[in-house]
Amino acid sequence: MKKVIALGLLAISCFFYEARAQSFSTRIVRIEIDGKEVKKDYKVFFFSNGKWIEAKRTPTGFVIPNELRNEEYLTVLISFGKYKLKFSEIHISKFDQNWTVGIDKKPFSEEFVKPEEAKTTKRVYYIQFGGSGLISTQLVVIEKKTE
Predict the structure, then answer these.
(1) Is 136 helix (H, G, I), strand (E, B) or coil?
(2) What gap in Å lies between CA 51 and CA 134, rounded to an integer?
(3) What's the pLDDT tens digit per position in 8-34?
(4) 38-52 burial by CB neighbour count: b if 16+ within 10 A, else e?
């Protein structure tokens, strides 16, 4: 009987450990350029203590490195093809949501860039958090041309 209880407790603790580990996994559901999905392999990096740390990939996304799991805000670099997209200060709560990562190329969508700002805009990229029936939010980075 003690063996059964011990095995049950072990199974329960494994379940909670796995559930906790899953909460640190982020799913990238789509990578897109101008709204069209691209099938590119990507890498995810986190910036901490002056260096970039590559995230462990999962079949559908990535896992936050152990040493960063207690941080409130994280800086992320997503690299695919010729693109390197840097997102600063993403709140830890956003890592529990599905992500769509995208680039908006010229001519820029008015959703991201006002027409009068298009001439001074070099590049636009974003992460859309949530979606699929949920209320979604997005983080948009607009890089201006240097003169």
Answers:
(1) coil
(2) 34
(3) 444 444 444 443 444 478 999 999 999
(4) beeebebbbeeeeee
Residues 56-67 as b or e (16 or more Cβ within 10 Å = b) = eeeeebbbbbee
Q: Which of 95, 74, 75, 96 is nearest to 85 (CA)?
A: 75
The model's pTM is: 0.79
Encoded tokens for 30: 């789509």
Distance CA(134)–CA(140), nearest Å, equals: 19
Q: Are 104 and 76 in contact (CB under 8 A)?
A: no
Q: Is the dihedral of CA 79, 146, 37, 91 positive or negative?
A: positive
Task: Please report, for residues 4, 66, 80, 81, the alpha-carbon distance to residue 52 in angstroms, rounded to integers and kept in the order given.
Answer: 46, 14, 16, 18
> In sequence order, what are the beta bridge partners of 139?
127
Nearest to 95 by CA among 41, 44, 54, 142: 44
The CA distance from 4 to 76, in Å, is 45
Report, as an integer, the average pLDDT of 109-132.
Answer: 90
